[in-house]
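Journal club prep — side note

Before the paper discussion, L.F. wants everyone to see what a predicted structure for a comparable chain looks like in token form. Sequence:
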Amino acid sequence: MTKSLQEISDRMEIDEVLVRYSRALDFKNFAEIEPLFTEDAQFDAGSLGKPQGPAAIRAMIQASLEKLDSTQHSLAKSLITFTDPDTAEVRTYLISQHILGDKHYFIGAEYADRLVRTPQGWRIAYRRLDRMWKEGDRSVITRSH
């Protein structure tokens, strides 16, 4: 199956959006999160919330992560399916670590995303976090610090 140069370019740009998201979380550069989402984006994070819009998505993430000592969101290679030239359904495995003092919380999950091409490039229009397993103290990311 031969891919066009446009599709190869699109795949590379989509991968970069996903990596930029993880790095923004891990380096606590929360302002870098908002430009990765469309204005009407939705994020179904299960029990952490279901914010809509880039500012609300950033607020949920920042409230969960800002007081942690460190995090690492490691992504596997994504499975990208184009439903039309400007829309992609993307599935990406994730292992994330959350550390606060001597407490740790790990999850294995999958991001189920829909990305759309915008004048500014590919952006996340919908994201769902599907947790597959967890280990450790969940209060690390859910309690007030």
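L.F.'s comment for the group: The helical segments are 5-26, 54-65, 139-142. Keep this in mind when we get to the figures.
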